[in-house]
Inverse folding.
């Protein structure tokens, strides 16, 4: 029986080969399929406001080879990609343009690719990832679909994420400016003076078990502005920069107050070094940057972040 089946299979294969050989090849049909997606309104808006102005590409479509395979992730929704682009322009790029005199600062220093992802990436240590940078040329920005959601405050009042400076800073702009901070020190290293403030007392990955949460008083007492700053000197530098420019004067003063004398002295030393670093190496006044960001965030409710008309 096995032999009969084998012979039948050979006969069928021969028939297929003859049939294929008799077919005429239609040379007018290309074997290469053009997979280019038609341009839409957001593509045109990004071309004018990101590519032409800053030489920056924002990618919001799902591309397997551009997105981490280490997490379960989903694409950014089209409407939230629009909001992210508009908010990034309004709070970040426009603030830098205002204090540096134009688009050249961002054009020369900001990573050239921004990849959007819809949700955060959950880690095995119960933390989650909101963003990352790759070699100074790319920023991955996650949890973009949060922009279409609402949240409840301590009094159980409902608010839109898109008009809350606290939500926008905690979820997006702290992360964006943190990753941008890495780009700066990767190009021009900070001095050893910064590292020496904390010395060998950085905690590495164990910081998640040392601190009980983001408001653990011990974070500030040890001279860190956030728990993640305790990971390493590089993360500490990026956290001081991003925390300072996204905090109001009262919010940063609260950190200093909770730090006690020794912790406050360490944080103030680090802030002085970071402030001098940006002024001396990049001609960037981070006090003015903070003021510009705060002024724009006070007017969030007045903006239409769904508008991408040209």
């Amino acid at each position: 029986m096995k032999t009969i089946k084998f012979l039948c299979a050979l006969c069928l294969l021969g028939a297929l080969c003859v049939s294929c050989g008799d077919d005429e090849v239609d040379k007018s049909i290309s074997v290469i399929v053009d997979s280019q997606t038609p341009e839409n309104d957001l593509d045109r808006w990004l071309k004018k406001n990101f590519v032409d102005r800053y030489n920056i590409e924002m990618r919001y479509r799902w591309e397997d080879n551009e997105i981490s395979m280490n997490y379960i992730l989903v694409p950014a929704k089209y409407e939230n990609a629009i909001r992210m682009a508009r908010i990034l322009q309004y709070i970040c790029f426009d603030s830098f343009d205002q204090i540096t005199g134009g688009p050249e600062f961002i054009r020369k220093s900001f990573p050239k690719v921004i990849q959007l992802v819809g949700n955060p990436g959950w880690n095995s240590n119960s933390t989650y990832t909101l963003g990352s940078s790759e070699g100074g040329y790319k920023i991955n920005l996650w949890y973009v679909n949060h922009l279409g959601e609402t949240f409840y405050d301590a009094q159980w009042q409902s608010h839109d994420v898109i008009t809350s400076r606290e939500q926008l800073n905690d979820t997006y702009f702290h992360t964006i400016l943190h990753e941008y901070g890495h780009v700066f020190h990767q190009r021009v290293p900070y001095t050893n003076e910064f590292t020496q403030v904390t010395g060998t007392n950085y905690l590495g990955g164990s910081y998640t078990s040392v601190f009980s949460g983001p408001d653990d008083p011990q974070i500030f007492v040890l001279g860190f502005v956030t728990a993640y700053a305790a990971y390493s000197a590089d993360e500490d530098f990026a956290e001081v920069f991003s925390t300072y420019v996204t905090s109001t004067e009262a919010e940063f003063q609260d950190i200093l107050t909770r730090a006690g004398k020794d912790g406050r002295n360490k944080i103030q030393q680090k802030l002085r070094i970071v402030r001098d670093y940006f002024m001396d190496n990049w001609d960037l006044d981070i006090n003015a940057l903070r003021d510009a960001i705060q002024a724009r965030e006070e007017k969030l409710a007045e903006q239409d972040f769904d508008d991408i008309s040209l």
Residues 1-21, 27-34 have pLDDT under 50 and may be disordered. The chain has one domain: 41-302. Strands lie at 57-59, 113-116, 121-122, 128-129, 131-134, 138-141, 150-152, 158-160. Residues 249-282 form the longest helix (34 residues).
